[in-house]
Each structure stands twice: as C-alpha cells, then as structure tokens.
User: What shape does this take?
Amino acid sequence: MCFYCGARRPGLWGFGPVASRLIGRLDFARAVTIVCVAAYVVSILLDPRAAAQFRGLFDLLSPGDRALLSLGMTGEGAMRQGWWWTLITAIYLHGSLLHLVFNLLWVRQLAPAVEELFGTARLVVIFTVAGVAGFVLSNFASGAWTIGASGAVFGLLGAMVAYGRSRGGTFGMAVFRQYGQWAVLMFIFGFLMSGVNNWGHAGGFVGGYLAALVVGHGERRREGGLDRMAALATVGLTAVSFALALWTGFLR
Assistant: This one.
C-alpha cells in the first residue's frame, strides 16, 4: 500500500510502471486511424476489381465482401461459426472511402475530449467496449453482416454524456447538452440514409455510457495501474482478434 495516497498495490507487482510507460505514450486517435487505414488498404488490395466498380458516391472504393469476411467482418453468421473475435476486428473495417473518412473524423474529434476527462487507458477500454456492444446488439437484432467504427464513435458520445450527467453543474450540463445533441443528430442522420447500422449505433452509445459509469472519470478517481493494465489487455485482445481473423480467413 502506498504510504502517501493509500492506493493498494500501486506498482502491480512490477507491471504498473511498464503499463504506465506504454499507455502513457499512446496516441489512441492516431493508432485507431493507422489501423483503420491499413485494414482498408488491405481490403482494397485483396479484391481490387470489386473496389473499382462504381455504384455511387457513398460506395466509392468499396471493398468486396469476400475481402471483408477474410479480415473479420461480423454478423449473425460469424457468431454461428463461433468467430467471437469479429466483434473487435469489425470495428476497424470500413465499407467505402467516405465511410472510413467520416468515422475517422469523428474519432479525431471525440477521442481527445474523452481522453482529457477519463484518461488514455480508460479511453481505450470505452472505445472497444462500445464497439463490441454495438455489434452484439446489431447481431442479435438484425443479424446482418456489418463493419465500421461508428458504434465505438457513438460510445465516445455516450461516455461524454455520462460524464456530463455525473459531474453536474454548469460545465457538466454544458457537456451533457452538447454531446447529447450531437448524438441525437447523428441518430437522426442514420435513419435518413440507407445501409446505416442504427442498431450498432444504439448499442455503441449504451455500451460507451455504461462503460464510462463503470470505469469512472478523472475527477472522481485518478487513472491507476489497474486501468492501464485493462487497456493493455484490451490492446492485446485486439491484436489476438486480428491474428485469429487472418488465420481463419487465409490459413485455415
């Protein structure tokens, strides 16, 4: 126990400092951008003929379904096969150039705000939990094959709404109204466009909101070693999920 602050196992048996160094250097928004762009480029290269077919502006440079399945697209069919890892890999896959750009712009907009209020480690957990929750609800409610980071993006909105309600006061209510309005507008926008996974958006928002309540924000509790270890475990699970997706799609 720390003599100064009373924290139990502050060094986590030697793993705490390592986790602090690794997570402390992580630019999560940039990391998500790199992974999403890399996965998108690979999906295009796997089936360039499908990507070259012009079906409309919103489908510009759309990867083929076979390529997306090989990289970890999720859906009821994937769950029937026992491919649980697709709930994570599908977060980083996108169905067109505009789909990719739109989601990454929101990640770059929202991730720094969540990171400032919750911390880097808790941001990693919230983003991933929200993305998984969105796909779980989508797979249960519609069963359609689906991809994209929009559920995780809605989870970041949910986390900010949870912070605003938890903090209260003038600042808290301002955060609650701003991010709540963005969430409502994005929900409405989703219903006005075809092919949008609104179940995934709803599940992601709820998942992010609940995850934020569980992990807590920085004004209630400082980010500690357990938070960083949870973030490292989340990053490791994401890497394992991609390895399983590639093994299933190409090597099995």
The chain is about 70% helix and 0% strand. The longest helix spans residues 225-251. The radius of gyration is 19 Å. The chain has one domain: 12-251.
